[in-house]
Each structure stands twice: as C-alpha cells, then as structure tokens.
TrEMBL record, chains A, B:
Gene3D superfamilies: YheA/YmcA-like
Name of the protein in its database record: UPF0342 protein HUG15_08580
Domain of life: Bacteria
Listed transmembrane segments: none
Coiled-coil segments: none
Family: Belongs to the UPF0342 family.
Pfam families linked to this entry: Com_YlbF
Source organism of the structure: Salicibibacter cibarius
InterPro entries: Com_YlbF, YheA/YmcA-like_dom_sf
Amino acid sequence: MAENLQDKAHELAKALRESDEFQALQALHEEVEEDDVASRMLSNFRKVQLDLQDKQMQGEQPTEEEISQAQKQFEMVQQHDVISRLMEEEQRMSTVIGDMNKIITEPLESLYGTPEDEQNQ
Amino acid sequence: MAENLQDKAHELAKALRESDEFQALQALHEEVEEDDVASRMLSNFRKVQLDLQDKQMQGEQPTEEEISQAQKQFEMVQQHDVISRLMEEEQRMSTVIGDMNKIITEPLESLYGTPEDEQNQ
Ligand SMILES: [Ca+2]
Ligand SMILES: [Ca+2]
C-alpha cells in the first residue's frame, strides 16, 4: 500500500480513537470489566448470541428453548445500567463506522455504482 | 460523526482515489467500457456469478449445467487481455481495502481483541 494511503489510514484510526464515541465506549468497557457480575452477564449473553448465529449460519433452526433463553438474557442485559449503556454506545459506534465506510468507499462506488443505482437501471 | 473524523475519512478517500491502484483500476474500467465485446462479456460473467451467489445464499444447489457455464465463462474472461488485467487489478484493490480496514479498526480491536486473540484464550 502506498505510504500516503497508509498515513491517512493511521490518521483516521487516531481520530477514531480520540472521538467521543470511542472514548465513551472504552470507558464503559472498563466499567464492565471492573464489575464481576456485569462482566459475567455480558459474556454469557455474547456466548448465547454467538451460538445462535453459528446455528443460523449452518442452516440449523434454534429450538424454542434456546430462543426464549436468548430473549430472557437480552431482557436482563437491557435492564443492567452499565451494560445497556455499553450496548447503546456500540450502536452509536456502529453508525460511525458505517458513515466512515460510506465516505472511504466513495471512489469505488463511482466505478461500480451504488446498490441504489443498480436498482434504478 | 465528529467533524475531525469526517475530514480524515475524506482525506483517506482522496488518497485512495489518487493511488496507483485506483488509477489503474479506473483506466481499465474505461478501457472495458469503450470495448463493446469486452463490456458485454464482463457483464454476462458478473450476472452468472451473481446468480450463483444468490442461489447459494438461499441454500439452493446450483445445477451441473450452471457450474460448467460459470467455469466456461471464467476461462473466457481470463483469456481476455483487458478483462483479465481488470480482475487482477480488482484483486490488488481488494488487498488495499483490506489493509486499510485493518489499520482503521485497530482501535476497536484493542477493545474487543482480534479473532486470533479469541482463539488463544
Ligand atoms: Ca462515559
Ligand atoms: Ca493502467
């Protein structure tokens, strides 16, 4: 990769690291890590989510038991103050990353067209 | 998104647009567009690839006929000078984008760990 591209990518990574969104996310991660109950609750929740995803990717249907398990855990983490703030902040970060990617891949879209362009053809 | 982040993303997009890899890709796209045979050959090839992908995503098995069709078209485009160069350049661009993404998402990896870290736990 050209040096200029690499420099610009590092500058963007630095700006991301210094952004309010990243700083808030990092602070919440630390808060969760320091709280044994929250930290166990979150890692259980993530494990159940990942297991469900794995099943779906392998074309398997999750059982009703597994779905209600996942829902119960989702409600639990939603009610937990720090974890629910962490998940909101993750949503915000995911929007930032999406917006960033739209800007960065604009040159390629000018070559290949956006999905919307395809539909309008 | 913070203004600084937005500026840095635009600077990176500009660097990408000015990179040798992008310039070469753009030139090859123009070459293909000006060549009716090449342009028809490429869009047929892309259509067959997309149809195959659609089938696989819906969990359908493509027929032997469809697979041999796709293979024949792949060999055809491989033998076409401009299209084969275009596809090589697309490979190169895809590596650039992958390397860029690795740099940009480094801050997030420091929070969530890389897939390799997970496996080593
Ligand atoms: Ca905070
Ligand atoms: Ca060229």
